[in-house]
What we know:
Radius of gyration: 30 Å
Shape: elongated
Number of strands: 20
Amino acid sequence: MADETVQTGGDQQADRRVKLDRLRDEFGIDPFGRRVDGLAPIAEARGRYDAAADAAAKENAEDDRRPVVKVAGRVMLHRDIGRLVFMTIRDGTGDLQIAVSKKAVAEEVFKLAKLTDLGDIVVARGPLGTTKTGEVTIWAGDGEDAAGFGIATKSLAPPPEKWHGLQDAELRYRRRYVDLYVNPEVRETFELRSRIVKRIRDFLTDPPAGLGPGFLEVETPMMQPQAGGAAARPFVTHHNALDMQLYLRIAPELYLKRLLVGGLHRVFEINRNFRNEGIDRNHLPEFTMLELYQAFGDYHSMMALSEQLIHTLAMELVGSAIVRFDEQDIDCSLPFRRARYHELFAEHAGFGSDDVERVAGLAREAGVETEGKDHELILKDVWEHVVEPHLVQPTFVMDYPAEMCPLTKRKADDPSVAERVQLYFAHMELVNAYTELNDPDVQATNFSSQIGGLDDEEQTFRATDEDFLEALRVGMPPAGGLGIGIDRLVMLLTGQRSIRDVILFPLMRAGDGE
Length: 514
């Protein structure tokens, strides 16, 4: 029978310390291991099982042609039944049972198997066979390696009380290193995230036919002398050697546009942005963005590129254009819906977005603060309450009020409207794209107007970027630009409803969940 003795966490740690000393003193081995060669991933090892060879070996022990494999993994289950010890071990590819028989290994090795705890990392080598119940198993030890089993790393911390999985959300985020190995679906989410990011890079550097030549991946500063490219509060830091105040970037936009000026006409960057603002299930202060610029494009170019990218990711990595998210089926089939901002607002509010009094009244009904705020800011808050809840299927919202978009070119036939588009999925903004403003005089005026309405503190870190204006005076080609929230895109494609579930180590308040 398995050992079912109940111990407290402190008792278990003390017991593991005793075993640690025994490994060193009694067995003369390093409990934190050394290099191990010749290991196979567990999934690969399991795939080498040969049923015919297994049956032959059971009929005639002298005719053992079972494949011999060598694996390493963390012990997830340990059953000591006297002269036989069974363990289930896990690596990043799956689980596999190993069996250590007293008659098949040296006495000291068998003692090691009995000494093993849940959570230890072990190495096993032996032929692949099955148990009486048909479970594929490595039978530790063979003619070439009588040892067949060893402890590679002694775990001093007992596993979660509920061994089948760490369930408390706060503890999962704080102890992601445990979450990853006890909850395989968590590991699968982050493996899929890695594949998503890789496929985005491949898509952009070698786009499908019809999207033009490839984009160049670049890197721009993450510490900046001025915070620009988005209306957000930055994190402030100080460079001692230069004795200057710097800001962690809130967006790479102004630097990427400088590259357009320099002749790099199709560029993108995937990297971290930092915004010293609120936290909820869709927002964290540190997040990953894809930002991209295409000379001689516009916001229509950006819509075509982004919908093709998202459709490709869904088809190749999820296996279907239908993505299940937040208990809804999101259809990523092409083309995505396109709708104008003012038309959507009128559709769901029942009146036009230019009706200042009615917009303010609707804001007050929704509990939105209106005192001292411009109409455009009130309208933005009302939009979140009135329109966003209806944007479930992929929808490009086009042609925003120009006052909301200081970095965007205005429509030639209607200067009150900016050529800006946002893509919504399941009530959540995923893509923000513009026809980029490249007139230096208009940009200077927009910067001045934007800064003029800020308080003194905000004016300090949102001062006009004169070098960027100088770059525009040199001449930036007409361009389209877009930003995609990588974390939100991963949420969509993996079905995770909280951004914390797609970021390996999300920022947590000190002390929470301890």
